[in-house]
């Protein structure tokens, strides 16, 4: 799931220029929830790691962020709401950085997914 979400985010970000954070005319409650989750992701991750190195909780926060980013990408409101692009970019950056702390995401998402596909595995 992680690699699939990162690849999808990369594709969207390659196709759309990311403007500075700007308010949207209307923000759905679901989008606000994703924005808020991404905003505090690093803090929540650090709290989990500071709690006796609670990697299970830290990974849970990463999965929650991935679910949120997938919902955001599913909305496809990037032209209507440029803030979504900025949040997507920030979320993908945070996932990569925090995942690296745990040794995740050492490969390019597209290369990793292609390797899994050629090996006959489904992955993410």
Question: What would you say this structure looks like, in words?
Answer:
The chain has 124 residues and is mainly alpha-helical. The protein has a single domain, classed as Anticodon-binding domain of a subclass of class I aminoacyl-tRNA synthetases (Four Helix Bundle (Hemerythrin (Met), subunit A), Up-down Bundle). The protein is 69% helix and 0% strand. It contains 6 helices and no strands. α1 runs parallel beside α4. The model has no long low-confidence stretch (mean pLDDT 87).
What does the secondary structure layout of this molecule look like, with pairings?
Layout: H1 2-15, H2 29-39, H3 41-50, H4 55-75, H5 82-101, H6 109-118
Helix pairs in contact: 1-4, 1-5, 1-6, 2-4, 2-5, 3-4, 4-5
Radius of gyration: 15 Å
Sheet bearing the most strands, described? none
Helix content: 55-70%
Strand content: under 5%
State the secondary-structure class.
mainly alpha
Counting structural domains, the number is 1
Q: Supply the CATH class.
A: Mainly Alpha
Mean pLDDT score: 87
CATH architecture: Up-down Bundle
Output the CATH homologous superfamily.
Answer: Anticodon-binding domain of a subclass of class I aminoacyl-tRNA synthetases
Which geometry do the CA atoms define? globular
Please tally the β strands and state the result: 0
